[in-house]
Design goal:
The complex is a heterodimer of chains A (292) and B (160). By secondary structure, chain A is an alpha+beta fold. Helices cover 34% and strands 25% of the residues of chain A. Chain A folds into 3 domains: 46 residues, 2-Layer Sandwich (Uridine Diphospho-n-acetylenolpyruvylglucosamine Reductase, domain 2), CATH 3.30.43; 116 residues, Uridine Diphospho-n-acetylenolpyruvylglucosamine Reductase, domain 3; 112 residues, Enolase-like, domain 1, CATH 3.30.390.50. In chain A, helix 10 runs antiparallel to helix 11 and helix 11 packs antiparallel against helix 12. Classes of the chains: A alpha+beta (292), B alpha+beta (160).
Chain lengths: 292, 160
């Protein structure tokens, strides 16, 4: 099996990359290649030009600030998994990464590739939604920022023009003590999730939910925050009836259906996963020493 | 429109310089251009793990990498595991001892996955081993022997 012929470009800087984006037609950007590689082999895509981002060192970094975690688009998933910055500032990402493919795919796969491909079942876009990420995009027109809530335009379609590239991601981290959890259900370890839920919870002095964030993957066409469920849980003691009421919000969503799971099944398990994620996150919020 | 590039790679300690077409996958480069047919191709779209090799020490799938991407890199294939006198690597010996080979098709990918995994996690639990090989498919469905081999190899490697 081999892809159709293409011309290979390996720019060494973002400046050179943007120059290529401005001039080349029918091009594809190659990040980790764990989705694009198969698409090329199947000739599902047949670009005239393949622009390899792997030789642009300025696109791979993690920088932890007081309330932010900045990540370069070409930072590999395995590097994030091993990063002390990520473990401290965004432990839910480390937990989510365990379900991202397998070690061999995480060794190549990048966060920017995952966000640009935007598979509805992908974990990292869900984590970016959970942490209210801001994405930086560059192109011949200059640089612009996109909120994660606006990034998913439709099924596997991010707000990214054909002459643009995602260069960096900035997550808003929680300075206050909180618990986290990322849980999903897939047919086997590392397979595409039929549903997955990411959760952050901060408790007040009385053990009630002061702040809640919930993100859902694999169910809707783009990763989504469960804002109504977050609102209904805030201020409660996160008991079973409050969790049930929050999970009921999932029933109102328009869910994907495919050979792996019907829309009804996806919503059903998403509700169960929401409960599990909340319980784990609350338990971790109550035992701060386990948080890291 | 045929785009060719000259690349330099070191495979199992031996340097090679070759001209390759840009669309040449790393797996095809290893098998057809260098004659290293130990690396197997199952699905050719990054699902089965049979083509797993080490790229600069990390396990990766060679069917969804292009040879042009590894210019300047160091590669180890299954042919590079045993000593030059033929003494098997502890992981290979353990596969033999625990009936982890079976038909042999998934073996190169399994062994490259397990060697990289044990280098990073020298004392894994059975569950961790199962998770580590979750990206490698064995259609003899004899994962039991493979898991036993990986756990035994971990012990043997620790003792070395």
């Amino acid at each position: 099996m081999k892809p159709a012929s293409f011309k290979y470009h390996d720019p060494r800087s973002v400046k050179d990359l943007v120059g290529l984006l401005a001039t080349l037609e029918n091009k594809k950007l190659l990040a980790g290649g764990q989705s694009l590689g198969p698409m090329l082999n199947f000739r599902y895509v047949m670009p005239d030009h393949l622009i390899d981002l792997n030789r642009i060192p300025e696109l791979a970094y993690t920088r932890a600030g007081a309330d932010t975690l900045e990540i370069g688009a070409m930072t590999r998933q395995r590097a994030l998994e091993r990063s002390e910055d990520v473990r401290r500032a965004c432990p839910v990402m480390v937990e989510a990464l365990r379900s991202v493919g397998h070690i061999a795919t995480r060794n190549r796969g990048t966060i920017g590739g995952s966000l640009s491909h935007l598979d509805p079942a992908a974990e990292l876009p869900g984590v970016c939604a959970l942490h209210d990420a801001t994405l930086t995009v560059s192109g011949p027109q200059g640089t612009r920022e996109v909120a994660m809530s606006d990034w998913g335009v439709s099924f596997m379609t991010p707000d990214l023009a054909s002459d643009e590239v995602l260069t960096g991601i900035s997550l808003k981290t929680w300075r206050e003590p909180h618990g986290h959890a990322f849980v999903e259900l897939a047919r086997r370890q590392g397979d595409f999730a039929m549903a997955g839920v990411g959760c952050l919870v901060a408790l007040d002095a009385n053990g009630k939910a002061r702040r809640v964030a919930l993100a859902l993957i694999g169910v809707t066409s783009t990763p989504t925050r469960l804002s109504a469920a977050e609102k209904s849980l805030t201020g409660t003691d996160l008991a079973d009836d409050a969790i049930r009421a929050a999970a009921a919000e999932i029933d109102k969503l328009e869910a994907l259906a495919d050979a792996h799971a019907s829309a009804a099944y996806r919503k059903r398990i998403a509700g169960v996963l929401l409960g599990r994620a909340l319980k784990t996150a609350v338990a971790r919020a109550r035992t701060p020493e386990r948080r890291q | 429109m045929i785009d060719r590039r000259r690349i330099k790679v070191t495979v199992n300690g031996v340097p090679h310089t070759r001209e390759v077409e840009a669309r040449r996958t790393l797996a095809d480069f290893l098998r057809h251009d260098l004659g290293l047919t130990g690396t197997h191709l199952g699905c050719e779209h990054g699902v089965c793990g049979a083509c797993t090799i080490h790229l600069d020490g990390e396990a990766v799938r060679s069917c969804i990498l292009f040879a042009v991407q590894v210019d300047g890199c160091e590669i180890t294939t299954v042919e590079g595991l045993a000593d030059s006198d033929g003494t098997l690597h502890p992981v290979q010996q353990a596969f033999r001892d625990h009936h982890g080979l079976q038909c042999g098709f998934c073996t190169p990918g399994m062994q490259m996955t397990v060697t990289a995994f044990l280098a990073e996690n020298p004392a894994p639990t059975e569950q961790e081993v199962r998770e580590a090989i979750s990206g490698n498919l064995c259609r003899c469905t004899g994962y039991q022997g493979i898991v036993a081999a990986a756990l035994d190899a971990a012990q043997k490697l620790k003792a070395r």
